[in-house]
Amino acid sequence: MASPNEMEYPDTIDDVLDMPQLLKIMRGALSGNDSKMLEFLVQPALERQYHTDYSKLAKDFPLSNAAKKMVSSLIEKKDTVSWDDLTATIVKDFRDAFNKTILKNFYAQSKEFKRYHEKEVEKAANKHFASSKKIAQTLGIEANNANMAALDAIRSNLVEGNDKEAKDKADTLMRANTGRIRAVKVDDLLKAVKTNKVKAKPVDVSSQKLSKCAGFDGSKNDAKLTALAKQMCEAYQEKDMILLRVAYGKIEKALKAKGGKVPSEKEMMRSFVKNKLVE
Asked: What is the mean pLDDT of the chain?
């Protein structure tokens, strides 16, 4: 196949002939003798067409010496050569020409194929990945033109199997959104594109940060409360509401023992997020 992963294309003309949509694109892209050769492979010409469409067969088309001799014999009307015999030889020679050069040039140079390929890439990206806008929301970055273009390109690279280009673009995107993007590493960003989920940053519960949170003023350097707050943040991150409430219950008890005001579970969690103990 000509391309990796989702975007694989036939590397033989026989396979192209079995793909109506790709064959249609190729028919629209080729011209001159290449077009005539393709039509011959689609439907071998009748002998009467030889004199109109293929009269310069031996001169203008890539035929083997064997085929050229058969053409000469046909022109000279020798009984030893039949049109059916010549057709089989021409089909083989035309097939070889397509497989060696014409098909590769079609993939590499044809504007028609490029447009077709881009649509197929977009179709595959939409099938496997969330939209760039949704991925931007997951990553916590703006859905501006630059970020959308970068995410579109990364999605396309992944579909095409261009992992290096995808990593390079992901690195550039992270640098452009430093301090805002939720992904910690390039691999985290690529995983977010593939799954529309982002690996959360590790919780950052220090006694200094904790002392700025609702209900924890005066609790600086309290190792027990710091450990419980970390448990609560980790439970929040994992969406484990049972463990979160257990941790909150222990914090509530410890704060009451200190005689302080105890915020509600929601207020406490909002304060943790606001002070960046957890995302």
From this structure: 86
